[in-house]
């Protein structure tokens, strides 16, 4: 065996032998000098320039204290009441900690949390050496957010006994042997400790500063240097690296996805599931062992400057811990994150006497490479540019209608939302902004040309927020298209990025590295629809609603305790392009008639009903007989569905039922595993199942748009009512 391989095996053995090793006490984390200054600078900005500026006083201190505790221990599984009492005096001192740049108290709170967490995990490990009586009539409350803090250590130990017992029972019901259960849970608790011990000062500071920022307003955040870099990458959709999506699994950096066209994919030497165990800089370098590293630390080594060489030690996916590693060199290059770019597809929708071709453009985010645009790069990345190109392609492919899929699109660039809207409405106001002084500014694209003037629909869900809501609201207010899905998130505020590095005026020695302070994402304005209303709190309501799993009480703007209220201002001066009031009732009737007979859609409604019932459950039985009865009932229901599907096929129904296949996977019996404990193949298959379920709604939305095309083409009078303004705009432009 080569020396390098031997060293690797020792390292890997140490990483995987943690099941038997006694955990080390976590190192006490301390604030870095620059963090105190970053806190003070942030406070100066938030108290003076925020849209909802509030003083940093004792009242704000109490909010910060409570929010910080909640972020540390949301389910009240670690701290005792006595721990909370220990820091009671700090409840009105968080403002002083920020103002005096003395962060000792918030770090002390975190260090105690980390100590308690280690104690709980050690106790959980000890419980695995005993046994559990699953004949007892006992229950475990797994949702504890609204519960009081546990008062005594004995009560806490009993709570964790129930928690571990539930973990064991879930695996037992899945058919796992006691030996495997013990190994699985031991590794789970060890991994929790390992992740906790990898936390750094930057993580603690970001957690504390976000407790402050979100106490001001829900969409104000502090981003540490690493988080700031990740945000920039998400907006420009590019980075320099090898083109691999990585994931930490069992202390090893695992390849989850290869980006098409990237160095890793082009090499042909890497595949999904391979583990990166060493990283070197330069063709002749010796790779540094990265086993057990934090994912972002390993990523920092793998990324680098364009055209430089990175050397990787790789343990193949099929190899065991003692497998032979491979060494390869890759040249870093600019990677375009195409999975987050706009994409198109075409759906053929069968109507009574014809087939309608519906073009679907999916937008995961409103992206723009701000830096490239600022420096005059003619080819800067932009969602509007990409969509304009896709619309031109769809026109050549002679689609009958276009649907913009904004589901789970959390927003992005406000400028892109305005420019994208103009592709469908032409020149005119898109959104109104009001700043903290009450000044209102109308955002519009005066010289915009219409890229698509045909039938249009926008598909939204509860995850559609901010820029997505600006676009959907403008399309609705102009009468330009049909809004389908469910009410959107309700985020009607505008944020700007404040680079704290640029605010630092402190002197330093020549040649000394300049500290990095991070950035503030701060709310500076509220946006309003052109009709004078706002999407804040209420979101955009669909013209035709579709089935939804969303829980408005726990997700969306209305779930925040300090969200800005809904208000209204004067409408902008805009020209309505169409009137949907004659069309929508006809589409609603067709929609209801179709889904009543659609087995896929009815199955989805049944799943939603079951999900809503389960969502209200906060406690589970720890009695094996009771839990088996619940499991068997779910299994019987799934079996009956499959039998009904097969019976339908026997009657000549040849329709492919993606929804039923997806539902069967999602309704499969609880395997008792956490996501990172399943095989990568199983995890990717589960993602595919979730996508298939989403396709049911996309299919129905496409049918609704197909109905609109059918009605408009068969009724010229109706068509003239729906889009007369756009026709006039086109004639005027010509």
TrEMBL record:
Task: Cite the record's Low complexity compositional bias ranges.
Answer: 659-670
Give the compositionally biased regions (Basic and acidic residues): 629-658
Signal sequence annotation: 1-20
Q: Which UniProt keywords apply?
A: Hydrolase, Protease, Serine protease, Signal
Q: Which domain of life is it from?
A: Bacteria
- Which residue ranges does the record annotate as region Disordered? 629-670
**Ranges of residues in domain PDZ:** 232-311
Family membership, please give it: Belongs to the peptidase S41A family.
Tell me what this protein is called: Carboxy terminal-processing peptidase
Organism annotation: Roseateles albus
């Amino acid at each position: 065996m080569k020396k390098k391989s031997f060293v690797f095996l020792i390292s890997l053995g140490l990483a995987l032998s943690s099941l038997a090793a006694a955990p080390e006490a976590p190192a006490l984390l301390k604030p870095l000098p620059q963090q105190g200054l970053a806190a003070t600078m942030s406070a100066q900005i938030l108290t003076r320039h925020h849209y909802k500026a509030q003083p940093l006083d004792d009242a704000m201190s109490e909010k910060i204290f409570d929010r910080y505790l909640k972020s540390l221990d949301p389910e009240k599984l670690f701290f005792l009441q006595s721990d909370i009492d220990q820091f009671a005096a700090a409840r009105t001192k968080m403002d002083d900690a920020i103002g005096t740049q003395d962060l000792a108290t918030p770090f002390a709170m975190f260090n105690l949390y980390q100590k308690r967490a280690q104690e709980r995990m050690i106790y959980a490990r000890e419980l695995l050496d005993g046994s559990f009586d699953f004949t007892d009539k006992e229950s475990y409350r797994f949702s504890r957010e609204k519960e009081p803090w546990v008062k005594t250590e004995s009560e806490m130990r009993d709570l964790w006994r129930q928690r571990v017992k539930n973990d064991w029972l879930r695996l037992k019901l899945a058919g796992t042997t006691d030996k495997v259960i013990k190994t699985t849970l031991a590794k789970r608790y060890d991994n929790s400790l390992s992740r906790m011990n990898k936390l750094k000062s930057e993580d603690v500071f970001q957690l504390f500063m976000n407790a402050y920022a979100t106490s001001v307003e829900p969409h104000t955040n502090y981003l540490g240097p690493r988080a700031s870099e990740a945000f920039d990458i998400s907006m420009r959709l590019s980075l320099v690296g090898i083109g691999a999506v990585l994931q930490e699994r069992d202390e090893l950096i695992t390849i989850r996805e290869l980006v098409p066209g990237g160095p890793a994919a082009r090499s042909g030497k890497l595949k999904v599931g391979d583990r990166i165990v060493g990283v070197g800089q330069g063709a002749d370098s010796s790779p540094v062992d990265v086993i057990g590293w934090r994912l972002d630390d390993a990523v920092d080594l793998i990324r680098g400057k364009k055209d430089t060489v990175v050397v990787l030690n790789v343990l193949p996916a099929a190899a065991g811990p003692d497998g032979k590693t491979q060494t390869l060199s890759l040249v870093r290059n600019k990677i375009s994150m195409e999975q987050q770019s706009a994409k198109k597809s075409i759906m053929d929708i069968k109507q009574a006497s014809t087939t309608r071709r519906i073009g679907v453009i999916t937008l995961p985010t409103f992206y723009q490479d701000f830096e490239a645009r600022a420096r005059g790069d003619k080819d800067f990345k932009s969602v509007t540019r990409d969509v304009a190109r896709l619309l031109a392609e769809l026109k050549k492919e002679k689609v009958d209608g276009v649907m913009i899929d904004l589901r789970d699109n959390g927003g992005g660039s406000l400028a892109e939302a305005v420019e994208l809207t103009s592709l469908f409405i032409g020149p005119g106001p898109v959104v109104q902004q009001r700043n903290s002084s009450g000044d209102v500014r109308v955002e519009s694209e005066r010289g915009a040309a219409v890229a698509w003037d045909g039938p249009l629909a926008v598909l939204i869900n509860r995850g559609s927020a901010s820029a997505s809501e600006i676009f959907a609201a403008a399309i609705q207010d102009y009468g330009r298209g049909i809004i389908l899905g469910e009410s959107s998130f309700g985020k009607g505020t505008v944020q700007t990025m404040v680079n704290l590095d640029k605010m630092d005026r402190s002197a330093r020695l020549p040649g000394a590295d300049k500290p990095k302070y991070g950035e503030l994402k701060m709310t500076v304005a509220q946006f309003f629809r052109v009709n004078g209303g706002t999407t804040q709190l209420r979101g955009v309501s669909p013209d035709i609603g579709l089935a939804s799993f969303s829980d408005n009480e726990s997700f969306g703007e209305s779930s925040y305790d300090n969200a800005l209220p809904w208000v209204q201002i004067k409408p902008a001066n805009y020209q309505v392009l169409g009137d949907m009031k004659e069309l929508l009732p006809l589409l609603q009737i067709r929609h209801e008639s179709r889904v009543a007979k659609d087995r896929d859609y009815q199955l989805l409604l049944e799943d939603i009903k079951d999900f809503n019932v389960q969502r209200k459950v906060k406690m589970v039985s720890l009695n094996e007989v009771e839990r088996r009865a619940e499991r068997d009932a779910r299994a019987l229901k799934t079996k009956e569905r499959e039998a009904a599907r097969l019976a339908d096929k026997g009657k000549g129904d040849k329709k492919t039922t993606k929804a039923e296949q997806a539902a069967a996977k999602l309704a499969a019996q609880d395997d008792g595993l956490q996501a990172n404990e399943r095989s990568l193949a199983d995890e990717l298959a589960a993602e595919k199942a979730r996508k298939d379920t989403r396709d049911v709604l996309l299919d129905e939305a496409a049918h609704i748009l197909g109905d609109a095309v059918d009605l408009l083409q068969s009724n010229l009078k109706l068509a003239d009512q729906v889009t007369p303004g756009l026709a006039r705009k086109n004639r005027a432009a010509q």
